[in-house]
Amino acid sequence: MSQCIERILKKIDIAFEWGSALILSGMTLLIFVQVIFRYVIIQPLAWSEELAKFLFIWLTFVAGYVAARRGNHIGVELIQNLVPKAKAFMQFVSYLISSAFFGMVLYYCLSLWSKLMAQISPATKIPMAFVYLGMMIGSFFMCLSYLIDAFGSFKKQSGGIGK
Q1: In this predicted structure, what is the pLDDT of residue 162?
Q2: Angle, to 10 degrees, between the axis of helix 128-157 and the axis of helix 48-70?
Q3: How many other CB atoms are found less than 10 A from the CB of residue 75?
Q4: How confident is the model at residue 3 (pLDDT cuts 50, 70, 90)?
Q5: Averaged over 88-109, what is the pLDDT?
Q6: Which of the listed residues 27, 80, 153, 161 has the most CB atoms within 10 Å of its CB?
Q7: What is the pLDDT of residue 5?
Q8: Average pLDDT over residues 29-56
Q9: pLDDT at position 76, please?
Q10: ∠ CA(116), CA(118), CA(56), 5° rounding?
Q11: How far apart are the C-alpha atoms of 147 and 92, rounded to whole Å?
Q12: Predicted structure pTM score
């Protein structure tokens, strides 16, 4: 069962990695075009800066999932290193807290969805809900990833085969 889930997650990982690359490329292109229009054509674009900010929000959460899956999020390991016998338990608790945090972010974004659909961005005229959609997608998958890590840590701690 866990091998099937891991295969599915690896496919999702690839999609998120490509998504991160595409979003970063789009942001770079938008900022480059904005610079050209501002300094060469002397006619700045009103919408490109706003859209680049929105893409940055998407990039933060899409790439955040990629970092979570790779175990590259920053962490404070001082106490874990001082008490090596409690390391597995503290990792388990850390994963649960991270999962709960991203679960709460997802919950509050979903609870505000109708208000976000009504709020329109000034330059691009798109509902702000689409900006927050990246936050919800990333939070959902980071919550899931940390839950899986917590389960793997628990299995490892209790003597089973972990991650």
Answers
A1: 42
A2: 10
A3: 11
A4: confident
A5: 92
A6: 153
A7: 83
A8: 89
A9: 65
A10: 40
A11: 9
A12: 0.83
Mean pLDDT of the chain: 87
CA distances from 50 to 45, 55, 73, 122 (A): 10, 9, 27, 9
b/e code 138-157 from CB counts within 10 Å (16+ = b): bbbbbbbbbbbbbbbbbeee
Q: CA torsion angle for 4, 5, 8, 12 (degrees, to 10)?
A: -160
pLDDT for the residue 163: 42
Neighbours of 69 (CB within 10 A): 22
* Residue pointed to by tokens 């990039």: 59
HEC states along 109-159?
A: HHHCHHHHHHCECCCCCCEHHHHHHHHHHHHHHHHHHHHHHHHHHHHHHCC
Cα separation, 92 vs 101, whole angstroms: 14
